[in-house]
Known about the structure:
By secondary structure, the protein is mostly beta strands. 12% of the residues lie in helices and 43% in strands. Strands 1, 3, 6, 8, 11 and 13 form a six-stranded antiparallel β-sheet that branches. Strands 2-7-12-9-10 form a five-stranded antiparallel β-sheet, with no helix packed on it. A four-stranded antiparallel β-sheet has the order 17-16-19-20, with no helix packed on it.
Amino acid sequence: MKKKLLYFHLLTISIIFSSLSLKGQITNYATIPYSTGFESGTLDANWYTTSDNTDGRIQIWNSTSLIWSGDTAKAHTDSLWLGLDVVNPGGTYVTNEAWFGLDLNNESNVRLGLWWSEWNDESEIEDGIFISDDGGTTFTKVIDLAGASYTDLQWNYFDINLDSVNSLYGLNFTSTYVIKLQQYDNYYFAGGNDGFLFDDISVYNTNPTSINETITSSASIYPNPTNKTINVKLNNYGTEVNYILTSIDGRIIKEKTKINLDRFSINLENESPGLYLLKVYDKHHSKTYKVNKL
């Protein structure tokens, strides 16, 4: 009788600890193209958030909410952004995780684009972008987000080839593909000044799936090569087209959002000769073009 009772207690304890160790799982996986700028004010059904203690904070902020010592935490575009930090007064180290799920089964040529900023956040090994191809059971870190190496409250763009990431780390496109944004620190926005900001996240396939998609997402770049200015003519893009011009090593040279014209020009007269990458995108399409400055 005592042996049976002891076994029952051990089994109960095992179940309790197993339950405590289990994380919630994403129940909705978005198909691509997927994008969010958090402007609805809530995370959509494809997201899951968790912190390893109650001091963690993951929420959507307004650009006018956080001001400290003359600095304001503003969205990359529009007015809302996703923040990961610790509740005031801080002091306890927390790991914050924001996951979003994607159904990428049978996909290829997939890219992840996102904007990230930090506010006086130190570099920690736990900080970064992680990927899981098994619904979040296991994660692999694929990008460092080393806060100490960046300028406070300056938005930085990451354009990640997920096919290359999968090949490098032995991952696969599955129906339960998860991208995790993770931050580890012990203080708060606007005072303690630790924290990560995310905005304008998109995941898209660079292979057009139809003739119509090819037409609606094309642009003409001319003259190319150029020694002064390039002209960009858009073919049936949506309203509020954006562009970002980067050097071949990823430095942002120029960017502009919410262009409501079917053509525009970019002045490169003061830029060094070499190869540049011009990404032109709206809410549904994104393409990158090579630009040669003479």
